[in-house]
C-alpha cells in the first residue's frame, strides 16, 4: 500500500560517513496517484520512483545508509544488516548526537503520506556507560503542511533536542492537531506490531537483511540445496504464525489422549483379528462334519462308469464291419487319384515343351530385328562417311560458279562483287536461321522422346528388379527347403544308427509298432495304478479312522479343557464380583454368596438407586429455583432480588405499551430511610409487592391494557401510582391488617435493599454450590450402583441358579471321555502302519514300470515326430524342384530385361547427347548469323536456299575475297580454271559412291546435324555408338536363340497332345499355363498322397478300434478283479461310454480316486481345522499383543488346541461387546484426532494453494519476448487426495504427538512442513527460468541454480523470487488489488548484475508485482543506470579529497573543492538528485 518517498538522516553515522542533515528524495518520479482529489492551483501528485539508484563511491557510506534505514523497519540490534555485531549501531551515534532516521511513505492509491522514524541518544550524553544506555524511540505520524519530514523539530536555536524533548515537542503538536495521529513505541515487539497495523510488512525486511548480508550477495539468501528446502523456506515465509501456534497448541492439549490410541487400536486389532480367526474355526468344524458324508457316492459313480464301458464294447464290436467296407472304398479312391496325378504330370510336360518352342521363336524374331537395326546403323555410318566428299563437291561447284559470274561481269566488278557478297551473306543468314530453328525443333523432339524413353526405362528397371527379387526368393526358398530336407535325412540316418528303426523305408512301420508297445505298457501300468489306488484308499481309510479317533480325542480334550475353563471363568467372575465393597455394605456381612444373595442384592441396589434419584431430583429442583437469581446477579452484581414473576410480567406488559412504571420494591429501594421503608412495607404490603405507574393519568389505560390481555396473573397483583405511598403516608392512614386478624409475612429485604440483596446472593450461591457438590456425589454413587447392578444382572444371566454345580459335574464327565478317546487312537495308529507297508510295496513296483514307460514313450514320440517330418520332407522336395525351376525362369527373364534396360540407358544417353548437340548447334549458328557482314538483313519470309549451310558459308567466303580483289586479272582467271578442275574431280569422286548412300548423305548434310563441323562430328559419333549398340544387341539375340534351341532339344517329347484351345498363345501365356499345370500336378500328387494317408488312417482306425475294445475290456476285467467278479458281465439299458480308451482310463481313475479323495477331503478338513486352531494359538501368542491383558487371550493359550473349535462361537459372542466398547473409545479419540487432522488438512491445503499462488504470481509481464506471460517460478508436485492424504497426514500427526511427548516442545511450523511433504509423496520439482540475453524459455532446477547460473543471473533470479514472495505475502494480507508489495533495498547489486537485459528483467518483474526497487551502487555505468527513472548521487567529501590526486577537475567543480575544510578524518555526505525524463525511460524499456 505504501511506497518509500523520502529518507531523512540527521546527525547520524560514523566519522567517515556522517549524515548531518540529508534528505534523499525519491518522490514525484512515478505514475500519477490514481485516487487523488485534484485541487485547483496544486500540482498533480505522482508516486515515488518505482526503481531508484543511490549512487555513492565505494567506501562512502552506502552500507551505513542501508543499516540506518533498516533500523527503523526492523528494530533490534541483533537485526543489523550485514553483521551479527550488536554494537554496530552504537558507533553511528556520537557522544553529543541525537540521531534521527525518518522515512516518508506515500499511499499508492490516495497519495496520503506517512512518517515512520527513530530517534536515538545516550542517557547522560555518554556512550561509555554501556549499550543499554543508548535509548531508541520509534514513532509514526501523518504529516501536514506544518509538520512534515523537512520541518520535524530536531533542533531549537541551533541546538539538537534530546530524545525526551523531541518527544514532548511532537506530543504538543499532536495535541494541537490530532490529525497527526502520533504513535510512540519503545519496545521492538510493539513497534513491529504497529508497523503491521499501518500496512507496512516488517517481516519482508528480515528477508532483505539476509539479502544484504554482503554487497552484491543477495543471491545467497535464495540459494537452496534441494527443492524441498525452497518449499520449506517459502512456507515459513508466508504461513500465518497464529495458525501454526493454534495447531501446536491443539497437539499439545490432546497429545496424551492421542497417545492412548495405539493401545486401544492394538486391543481393537486383537479383538477384530481374534473374531476373524474364531469364526472360520467354527465354520471349519461344520465343513469337517460335512466332508465325511460326501465319500459314499463315489463308489456308485465308479460302478456306473464301468457299466457304460461294457455297453461301449458291445457297440464297438458292431462298428468293426462298417470300418472294413470303408477301407475298400478308400483303396478305390487311391487308384483314381494316382491316374489323375499321371495325367497332370503329362499336361505339365506338354505345356513346358510348347512354351519353350514359343520362346525359341520369339528369340529368332528378336535376332532378325536386331540384324535389321544393325544394317540400318551401318548404312547411316557409311552415309556420314560420304558427307565430306559431298561437301567438297558443293564447295568446288559453288566456287567455280561464283568465279564465272564475276569474270563474266568484270566491267562492273566492284559493284557486282559487293552485290554478290551481300546476296550470299543474306542467303547464308537465312539458311543459318532456318538451320537453328530446325535444330531447336529436333532438340525439343529428342527431349520429348527422351522423356518417354526414360519412363519406359524406369518401367523396365522395375520389372527387372522384380524378376531379380523373384529369382533370389526362389533360390532362398529352394536352399531353405533343401536344408530342411537334409536335416530330416540326417535325423533318419541317426535313428538308423541308434537302432530306433531298421531302415528309412520302415520308419512308419517301426513308429506304429513302438506306439503299440507303449499302449500295452500303459495298460499294464493302469492296472498297477488301480491296485495302488486301492492300497492308497486303504491307507487313507486308516488315516481317516485315525484322524477321527484323534479328532474325538481332541474334542474330548477340548471339551474337558472347556469345561475346566468355563468352571474357572464362572468361579473367577463370581469371586471378583463378590469382593465388591458396595455389595458387602448392602448385605452388612463380610461373606457374600452370590449363588444365593444375587436377587436380594439386586433389590437393594434398585432401592438405593431410587433413593438417590429422589435426592437428586430434589436438589435439581432447588438449583433450578435459585438459578434465575444467580443469573441476574451474575449479569449485574448490584441488582436486587427479583420480585414475583407475575409482577415482572405486568410491569413488562405496561412498559411495552409505553406506560412508564416499576415495581413497588424498586420504588422502595430508592428510599434511603430504612425506617420509612420498613413502615411502608408493614402498612402497605400490597403496594410494595405490586406495580406502580409513574403518572396517575395512565392508571385507567393501564387497567384497560391488563383487562384486554389474554393471560391474567395467577395471584393478586396490585397496580397503583407512585404517589400512592405519599398520599397514604401524608394522610396517616394505616391499612395494615390488625394483629388479631392476621399478619403480613416479612418480605425478603433483598427485594428493596442492596446490602440485603448482596447477603441473599451469598447465601443462595453457597446453597447452590453445596447442592451442586452433593449432586455430583450422588451422580457418582448412582453411576456406581447402576454399573454394579448391571454387572450383577449380567452375572445372574450368565450363571443362573445351579449353573456352578452343573459345571463341576461336566468337568468330571469330560475327563472320563478323554481317557477312552486316547485308547481308540492307539488302535487306529497300529492299523495305519500295516496299510502303509502294503501301499509302499505297490508304489515301488509302479515307479519302475513308469520309468520304463517314460523311456519307451520318449522313443515313440521321437519316431512319431521323425515320421511326420519325413512326410513333410516329401512335400519339401517337390516345392524345392518347383522353386529351382522358377528361379531359372526368373533369372533368364531378369537377364533379358537387364539387356533391354542397358540398351534403353544407352539410348537415353545418345538422345540426351543429340538434344544437347542440337541446342549447342542452334546457339552457334545464331551467333554466326549475328557475326555476318554489316548491312545483312534477313526476312523470315525469304525463301530458304537449297544449298547446304557449309556450301553457302564457303561461297560467302569466296564472294568476300572476290569483292576484296575488286578487279579481275590473270590470277582471277587462273583461279577460275583451278576451281572448275576441282569441281570436276569432286564430281567424279562423288559418283563412285553408291546411289542410296549419296541420297542419304545429302539428307544428312542438309539436316541440322550437318550444319557445321562440330555437329557433324557429334552425329558421326552418335552413328558409331548406334552401330555398336545394334551389333551388341544382335550378338545377345543370337546367343539367346542358340540357348533356347539347345533347351528345346533337351526337353523330351510330350506324351500328351494338347488341343488347340489348350495351347498357349505366346510366351507369357505359356508361362502362366505352365505354372498352373505345376500347381495342378502338385495338387494331384497331394490328392494321391492324401488318399494313401486316408487309407492308412482307415486301417489304423480299425486297428485302434480293436485296441480300444481291448483297452475297455482291460479296465472292465480290472474292475471285476477288484470287485471279486461280482460285477455283472452285461449292461442292459445303459448308454455306451462316448469317449476313447484314454478318456475311459482317465475317468475310471478319476472315479476311483473320487472315493479316496472324499476320504482325503475329510482328513484334510480335519487338518484344516487343526491348522486354524494352531493359527489361532499362534495369533494369540504374537509378541505384539504381549502387553495386552485380555482374558480370552489367556484362555486361548491355556485351552488345548483340539478344544479351541468348541469354544469359538462362545468366545465370538463374548468379544463382540468388547469390540463395540473399544470402537466407542477409539471413536472419541478419533474425534479429537479428526479435528486436529481437519485443521492440519486445511493448513496443508492452504499451504499448497500458497505454493500455487507463488507460481501464479511469478507470471512475467509483457515486453519480455518469449518470456512474456510465462511463469518464472514453477513448483511441480502431485499432491495426493482423499483417503491417501488422510493416511499420510495421520502419520505426520502421530509422529508429532510422539515428538511432543518425548520433548515437550511445540513446533507447529515443523509439523506443517512435514505434512506438506507427506501430502506430496513424490516430492516437489521447483524450476525457474534461466535469465539470458535472448530470454529463452529454459528452466533449471532451483537446487542447481548456483551451479548453472552466472552471478548476475543468480542475483536476478533471487530478486524475482523475492518479488514473488512479497507479492504472495501481500496477497495473504489482502493487498493484491492495490498492486503493491513493498520496497526492496539492495546494496550494490549492479556490481554483480550489470547487464542491461538483467536489469530490465528485474525492473519489469518488480513493476508487475508492485515492488519498489532501491539499489545502491558505487559503479557509474551509464548503460546500466540509464534504465532507472531516478538516480540520487551521494558525494562524500572525504572521498572527493582523497581522489583529488587522480581526478581532473573542471572549473565548476574546483571552487567547491577548494572551499572544503582541511581533512580531519571525518566526512559529510551531500545528495544530488537526477530525474531522467519520461521519454528516456520509455526508450529504455
TrEMBL record:
Domain of life: Bacteria
Annotated coiled-coil segments of the chain: 436-463, 532-618
Keyword set, alphabetical order: Coiled coil
Protein name (database record): Chromosome segregation ATPase
Species the sequence originates in: Actinoplanes campanulatus
Amino acid at each position: 500500500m505504501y511506497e518509500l518517498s523520502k529518507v531523512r538522516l540527521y546527525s547520524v553515522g560514523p566519522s567517515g560517513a556522517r549524515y548531518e542533515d540529508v534528505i534523499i528524495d525519491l518522490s514525484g518520479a512515478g505514475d500519477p496517484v490514481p485516487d487523488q482529489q485534484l485541487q485547483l492551483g496544486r500540482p498533480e501528485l505522482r508516486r515515488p520512483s518505482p526503481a531508484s539508484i543511490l549512487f555513492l563511491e565505494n567506501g562512502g557510506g552506502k552500507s551505513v545508509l542501508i543499516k540506518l534505514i533498516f533500523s527503523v523497519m526492523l528494530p533490534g540490534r541483533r537485526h543489523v544488516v550485514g553483521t551479527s555485531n550488536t554494537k554496530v549501531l552504537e558507533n553511528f551515534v556520537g557522544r553529543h548526537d541525537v540521531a534521527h532516521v525518518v522515512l516518508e511513505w506515500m499511499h499508492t492509491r490516495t497519495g496520503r503520506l506517512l512518517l515512520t522514524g527513530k530517534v536515538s541518544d545516550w542517557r547522560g550524553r555518554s556512550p561509555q556507560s554501556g549499550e543499554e544506555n543508548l535509548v531508541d524511540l520509534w514513532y509514526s505520524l501523518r504529516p501536514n503542511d506544518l509538520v512534515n519530514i523537512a520541518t520535524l523539530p530536531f533542533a531549537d536555536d541551533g541546538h539538537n533536542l534530546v530524545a525526551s524533548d523531541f518527544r514532548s515537542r511532537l506530543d504538543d503538536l499532536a495535541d494541537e492537531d490530532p490529525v497527526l495521529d502520533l504513535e510512540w513505541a519503545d519496545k521492538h515487539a510493539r513497534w513491529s506490531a504497529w508497523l503491521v497495523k499501518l500496512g507496512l510488512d516488517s517481516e519482508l525486511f528480515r528477508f532483505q537483511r539476509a539479502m544484504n548480508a554482503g554487497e552484491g550477495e543477495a543471491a545467497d539468501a535464495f540459494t537452496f540445496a534441494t527443492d524441498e528446502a525452497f518449499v520449506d523456506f517459502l512456507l515459513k515465509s508466508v504461513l500465518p504464525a497464529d495458525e501454526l501456534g493454534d495447531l501446536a497448541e491443539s497437539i499439545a492439549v490432546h497429545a496424551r489422549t492421542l497417545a492412548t490410541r495405539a493401545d486401544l487400536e492394538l486391543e481393537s486389532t486383537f479383538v477384530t483379528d481374534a473374531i476373524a480367526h474364531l469364526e472360520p474355526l467354527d465354520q471349519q468344524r461344520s465343513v469337517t462334519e460335512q466332508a465325511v458324508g460326501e465319500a459314499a457316492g463315489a463308489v456308485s459313480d465308479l460302478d456306473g462308469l464301468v457299466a457304460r464301458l461294457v455297453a461301449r464294447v458291445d457297440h464297438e464290436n458292431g462298428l468293426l464291419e462298417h470300418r472294413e467296407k470303408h477301407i475298400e472304398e478308400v483303396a478305390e479312391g487311391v487308384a483314381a487319384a494316382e491316374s489323375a496325378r499321371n495325367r497332370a504330370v503329362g499336361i505339365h510336360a506338354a505345356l513346358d515343351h510348347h512354351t519353350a518352342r514359343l520362346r525359341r521363336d520369339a528369340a529368332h524374331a528378336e535376332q532378325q530385328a536386331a540384324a535389321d537395326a544393325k544394317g540400318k546403323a551401318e548404312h547411316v555410318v557409311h552415309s556420314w562417311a560420304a558427307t565430306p566428299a559431298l561437301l567438297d563437291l558443293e564447295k568446288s561447284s559453288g566456287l567455280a560458279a561464283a568465279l564465272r559470274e564475276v569474270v563474266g561481269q568484270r566491267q562492273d566488278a566492284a559493284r557486282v562483287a559487293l552485290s554478290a557478297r551481300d546476296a550470299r551473306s543474306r542467303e547464308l543468314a537465312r539458311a543459318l536461321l532456318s538451320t537453328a530453328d530446325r535444330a531447336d525443333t529436333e532438340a525439343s523432339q529428342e527431349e520429348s522422346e527422351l522423356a518417354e524413353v526414360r519412363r519406359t526405362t524406369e518401367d523396365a528397371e522395375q520389372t527387372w528388379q522384380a524378376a531379380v527379387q523373384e529369382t533370389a526368393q526362389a533360390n532362398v526358398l529352394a536352399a531353405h527347403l533343401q536344408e530342411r530336407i537334409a536335416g530330416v535325412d540326417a535325423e533318419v540316418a541317426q535313428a538308423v544308427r541308434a537302432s530306433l528303426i531298421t531302415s528309412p523305408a520302415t520308419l512308419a512301420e517301426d513308429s506304429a509298432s513302438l506306439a503299440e508297445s507303449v499302449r500295452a505298457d500303459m495298460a499294464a501300468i493302469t492296472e498297477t495304478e488301480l491296485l495302488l489306488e486301492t492300497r492308497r484308499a486303504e491307507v487313507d481309510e486308516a488315516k481317516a479312522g485315525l484322524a477321527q479317533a484323534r479328532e474325538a480325542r481332541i474334542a474330548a480334550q477340548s471339551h474337558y479343557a472347556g469345561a475346566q475353563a468355563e468352571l474357572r471363568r464362572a468361579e473367577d467372575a463370581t469371586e471378583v464380583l463378590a469382593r465388591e465393597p458396595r455389595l458387602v455394605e448392602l448385605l452388612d456381612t463380610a461373606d457374600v454368596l452370590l449363588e444365593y444373595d444375587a436377587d436380594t442384592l439386586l433389590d437393594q441396589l434398585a432401592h438405593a438407586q431410587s433413593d438417590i434419584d429422589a435426592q437428586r431430583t430434589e436438589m435439581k429442583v432447588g438449583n433450578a429455583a435459585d438459578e434465575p437469581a444467580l443469573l441476574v446477579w451474575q449479569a449485574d452484581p448490584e441488582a436486587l432480588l427479583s420480585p414475583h414473576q407475575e409482577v415482572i410480567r405486568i410491569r413488562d406488559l405496561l412498559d411495552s405499551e409505553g406506560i412508564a412504571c416499576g415495581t413497588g420494591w424498586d420504588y422502595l429501594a430508592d428510599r434511603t430511610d430504612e425506617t420509612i421503608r420498613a413502615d411502608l412495607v408493614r402498612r402497605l404490603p400490597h403496594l410494595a409487592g405490586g406495580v406502580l405507574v409513574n403518572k396517575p393519568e395512565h392508571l385507567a389505560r393501564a387497567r384497560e391494557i391488563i383487562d384486554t390481555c389474554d393471560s391474567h396473573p395467577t395471584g393478586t397483583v396490585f397496580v397503583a401510582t407512585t404517589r400512592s405511598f405519599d398520599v397514604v403516608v401524608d394522610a396517616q392512614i394505616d391499612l395494615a391488617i390488625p394483629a388479631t386478624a392476621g399478619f403480613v409475612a416479612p418480605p425478603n429485604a433483598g427485594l428493596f435493599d442492596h446490602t440485603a440483596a448482596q447477603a441473599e446472593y451469598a447465601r443462595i450461591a453457597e446453597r447452590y454450590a453445596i447442592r451442586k457438590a452433593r449432586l455430583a456425589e450422588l451422580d457418582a454413587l448412582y453411576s456406581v450402583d447402576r454399573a454394579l447392578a448391571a454387572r450383577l444382572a449380567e452375572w445372574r444371566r450368565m450363571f443362573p441358579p445351579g449353573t456352578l454345580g452343573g459345571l463341576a459335574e461336566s468337568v468330571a464327565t469330560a475327563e472320563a471321555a478323554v481317557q477312552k478317546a486316547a485308547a481308540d487312537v492307539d488302535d487306529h495308529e497300529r492299523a495305519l502302519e500295516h496299510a502303509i507297508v502294503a501301499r509302499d510295496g505297490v508304489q515301488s513296483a509302479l515307479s519302475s514300470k513308469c520309468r520304463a514307460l517314460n523311456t519307451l514313450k520318449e522313443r515313440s514320440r521321437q519316431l512319431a515326430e521323425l515320421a511326420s517330418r519325413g512326410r513333410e520332407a516329401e512335400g519339401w522336395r517337390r516345392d524345392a524342384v518347383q522353386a529351382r525351376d522358377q528361379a531359372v525362369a526368373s533369372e533368364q527373364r531378369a537377364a533379358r530385361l537387364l539387356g533391354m534396360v542397358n540398351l534403353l540407358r544407352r539410348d537415353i544417353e545418345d538422345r540426351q547427347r543429340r538434344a544437347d548437340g542440337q541446342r549447342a548447334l542452334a546457339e552457334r549458328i545464331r551467333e554466326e548469323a549475328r557475326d555476318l557482314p554489316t548491312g545483312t538483313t534477313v526476312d523470315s519470309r525469304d525463301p530458304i536456299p537449297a544449298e547446304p549451310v557449309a556450301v553457302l558459308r564457303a561461297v560467302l567466303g569466296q564472294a568476300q575475297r572476290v569483292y576484296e580483289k575488286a578487279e579481275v586479272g590473270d590470277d582471277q582467271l587462273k583461279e577460275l580454271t583451278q576451281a572448275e578442275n576441282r569441281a570436276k574431280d569432286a564430281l567424279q569422286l562423288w559418283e563412285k559412291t553408291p546411289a542410296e548412300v549419296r541420297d542419304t548423305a545429302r539428307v544428312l548434310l542438309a539436316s541440322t546435324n550437318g550444319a557445321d563441323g562440330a555437329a557433324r562430328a557429334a552425329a558421326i559419333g552418335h552413328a558409331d555408338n548406334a552401330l555398336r549398340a545394334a551389333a551388341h544387341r544382335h550378338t545377345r539375340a543370337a546367343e539367346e536363340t542358340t540357348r533356347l534351341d539347345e533347351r528345346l532339344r533337351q526337353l523330351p517329347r510330350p506324351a500328351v497332345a494338347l488341343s488347340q484351345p489348350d495351347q498357349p498363345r505366346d510366351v507369357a501365356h505359356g508361362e502362366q499355363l505352365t505354372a498352373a499345370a505345376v500347381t495342378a500336378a502338385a495338387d494331384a500328387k497331394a490328392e494321391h498322397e492324401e488318399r494313401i494317408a486316408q487309407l492308412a488312417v482307415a486301417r489304423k482306425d480299425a486297428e485302434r478300434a480293436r485296441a480300444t475294445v481291448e483297452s475297455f475290456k482291460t479296465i472292465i476285467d480290472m474292475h471285476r478283479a477288484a470287485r471279486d467278479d461280482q460285477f455283472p458281465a452285461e449292461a442292459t439299458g445303459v448308454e455306451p461310454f462316448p469317449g476313447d480308451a484314454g478318456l475311459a482310463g482317465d475317468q475310471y481313475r478319476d472315479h476311483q480316486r473320487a472315493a479316496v479323495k472324499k476320504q482325503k477331503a475329510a482328513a484334510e478338513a480335519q487338518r484344516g481345522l487343526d491348522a486354524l486352531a494352531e493359527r489361532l494359538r499362534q495369533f494369540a501368542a504374537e509378541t505384539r499383543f504381549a502387553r495386552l491383558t485380555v482374558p480370552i487371550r489367556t484362555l486361548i493359550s491355556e485351552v488345548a488346541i483340539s478344544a479351541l473349535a468348541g469354544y469359538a462361537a462362545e468366545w465370538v459372542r463374548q468379544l463382540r461387546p468388547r469390540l463395540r466398547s473399544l470402537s466407542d473409545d477409539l471413536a472419541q479419540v478419533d474425534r479429537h484426532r479428526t479435528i486436529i487432522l481437519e485443521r492440519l488438512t486445511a493448513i496443508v491445503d492452504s499451504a499448497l494453494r500458497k505454493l500455487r499462488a507463488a507460481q501464479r504470481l511469478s507470471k512475467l509481464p509483457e515486453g519480455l519476448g518469449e518470456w512474456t506471460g510465462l511463469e518464472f517460478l514453477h513448483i511441480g508436485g502431485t499432491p495426493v487426495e482423499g483417503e491417501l492424504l488422510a493416511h499420510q497426514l495421520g502419520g505426520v500427526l502421530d509422529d508429532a504427538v510422539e515428538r511432543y511427548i518425548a520433548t515437550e516442545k511445540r513446533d507447529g511450523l515443523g509439523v506443517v512442513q512435514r505434512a506438506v511433504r507427506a501430502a506430496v509423496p513424490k516430492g516437489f520439482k521447483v524450476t525457474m527460468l534461466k535469465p539470458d540475453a535472448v530470454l529463452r524459455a529454459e528452466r533449471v532446477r532451483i537446487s542447481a541454480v548456483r551451479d548453472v547460473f552466472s552471478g548476475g543471473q543468480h542475483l536476478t533470479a533471487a530478486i524475482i523470487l523475492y518479488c514473488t514472495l512479497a507479492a504472495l505475502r501481500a496477497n495473504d494480507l489482502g493487498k493484491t488489488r492495490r498492486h503493491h508489495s513493498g520496497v526492496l533495498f539492495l546494496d550494490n547489486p549492479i556490481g554483480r548484475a550489470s547487464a542491461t537485459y538483467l536489469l530490465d528483467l528485474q525492473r519489469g518483474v518488480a513493476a508487475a508485482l508492485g515492488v519498489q526497487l532501491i539499489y545502491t551502487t558505487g559503479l557509474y555505468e551509464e548503460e546500466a543506470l540509464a534504465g532507472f527513472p531516478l538516480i540520487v548521487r551521494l558525494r562524500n567529501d572525504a572521498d572527493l579529497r582523497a581522489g583529488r590526486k587522480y581526478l581532473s577537475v573542471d572549473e565548476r567543480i574546483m571552487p567547491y573543492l577548494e572551499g572544503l575544510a582541511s581533512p580531519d578524518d571525518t566526512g559529510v555526505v551531500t545528495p544530488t538528485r537526477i530525474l531522467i525524463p519520461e521519454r528516456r525511460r520509455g526508450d529504455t524499456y
